[in-house]
Amino acid sequence: MGKIKVKRPIVEMDGDEMTRIIWQMIKDELIKPFLEIDLKYYDLGVKHRDDTNDQVTVDAAEAIKEHGVGVKCATITPDADRITEYKLKKAWPSPNGTIRGILDGTVFRKPIMTKNIQPAVRSWKKPITIGRHAYGDLYKSQEFIVTGPGKAEIVFTPADGAGVARLTIKEFTGPGIVMGIHNTDKSIRSFARACINYATSEKVDLWFGAKDTISKKYHARFKDVFGEEVAKHREELEKAGISYRYLLIDDAVAQIMKHEGGILWACKNYDGDVFSDMVAAGFGSLGMMTSVLVSPDGKFEYEAAHGTVKRHYYEHLKGNQTSTNSVASIFAWTGALRKRGELDSTPEVQAFADRLERAVIGCIESGIVTKDLCRLTTPPLEKYETTAGFIGQVASRLKAEL
C-alpha cells in the first residue's frame, strides 16, 4: 500500500542518550515506512542546547505554537555532574519546563494498561490520569544560599511604586537557605479550565488537592481559583455526570490508594511531578505512561514520561545489547499523530495511530516484552526482547495490520 499522507507538519524534538537511540529506531521502522510526513526537526540534545545557549528549546516551543502539534524525546536536565560530563557552559533549565512555560500548558499523564500487567495497587481497576499544572512554583524559583546572620524578606514593589510590601521570611543567625516561588491567577485559571475540559471529554471525575490549611494564601489561592472555574462550569460537569472534589493533598494520597481509578487527579506542579511517577510505577512502569502538554489555546506536545535511560546508554556505547522499554516513546508518536489527524480531519492518520498502538499492546499481551516488564506480567515471563527486537516485533505486527 502507498504511504498515508499527514496533511500538516508535526514539530519533532530529538533528545538524549538511550531514548535518542530508540527515537531514531521508531522513526526508521514505525513512522517513515508508512507515513508521508513533514517533521519540523529541533535537536534538544543537551550539547546542542548548550551550543545554542538553549535558544533551540525556545524555537521548538514557538514552532509548536505555530503548527499546533509536537512530539518530544526524553532530554537531560543537567546537574553539576552532567555539566562536567558533557562540558557544558552552565546548568541549563529543564527543556520541558521551558516549553511548558512558553505554552502555559497543563500536563496530563495516563497509564497504558494491558490485560497481562496488573496494577500493584489491588484496588486500581481503571486508569488514574494525573493533570499536572505546568507553570511556576519550584520550577521557576529563585534560590539563595545564606552564608551568615541576616534577614531574608519578600518584597513586592507595585508598578506605580506606591505601597511597597515587605514580609520577613526568617531572621537568620547563621548559614541556611531561602527560596522564592510564584504563580499567577491567569495560569492557575488556565490549569483549572484545561482539567475541566479533559474531565468532560473523558467522562471522568475530577479531584484537586493542595495544602490550604498550612499555606493559607498560596495554596488557598489555588483552591479558590480552581473552585471558581468549577462553579462556572458546574452545569456542564453535572450534565456529563462528573463530580468535583477538593481534598487536602495528604488526604488525596491516602484515598487514591483505595480508589478504583477512572479519575483525573489535578495536582500542583511539584505534586504532579512526584505523583505521576507513583501512579506510573503502580500501574507497571514509567515506560508505560503517556504524557501530553495541552495549552489553553489548543496546542499539544506529546512525550515519554520517563528519562533518558542513562545506564542503558552506557551499555549501548560499549557495544552491549540492551532491553529498553520503548512503549512510552512510541505512544508519544501515536498521540501526536492521532491529534494531528483529528485537527486536520484526516481519519486515516488517526486510524494509523490506533493500529500502531494495537500492535504494541498485542506484542505485550502475547508475551513479547522488554526486560523491565518480565516481572510485572501475569504470569511472569523469563524470555524478553532486546531494544531493537521489540521495535522490530511491533513493526511486523503493524505491517500485518496494514
Strand content: 15-25%
Roughly how many Å is the radius of gyration? 22 Å
- Secondary structure: number of strands: 16
The global form is globular
* Alpha plus pi helix count: 15
Helix-and-strand structural type: alpha/beta
Q: pLDDT under 50 segments (min length 5)?
A: none
Average the pLDDT over all residues and give the rounded result: 95
How would you portray this structure in words?
This protein is an alpha/beta fold. Helix content is 44%, strand content 20%. The protein is built from 15 helices and 16 strands. It has a ten-stranded mixed beta sheet with strand order 4-2-5-16-15-6-7-14-12-13, with helices on both faces. It has a two-stranded parallel sheet with strand order 1-3. The protein has a two-stranded antiparallel ribbon with strand order 8-11. Helix 1 packs parallel to helix 15 (387-401), helix 3 (55-67) crosses helix 5 (95-103) and helix 13 (347-365) packs across helix 15 (387-401). The longest helix is centred in the C-terminal third of the chain and has 19 residues, at 347-365. The protein is globular and about 70 Å long. The N and C termini lie close together (8 Å). The mean pLDDT is 95.
Please write out the topology.
Layout: E1 4-5, E2 10-14, H1 17-31, E3 35-36, E4 39-43, H2 46-51, H3 55-67, E5 69-72, H4 80-86, H5 95-103, E6 106-111, E7 128-133, E8 142-146, E9 150-156, E10 165-172, E11 176-180, H6 185-202, E12 205-210, H7 218-232, H8 234-239, E13 244-248, H9 249-256, E14 263-267, H10 269-283, E15 289-294, E16 300-304, H11 310-317, H12 327-344, H13 347-365, H14 371-374, H15 387-401
Parallel strand pairs: 1-3, 2-4, 2-5, 5-16, 7-14, 12-13, 12-14
Antiparallel strand pairs: 6-7, 6-15, 8-11, 9-10, 15-16
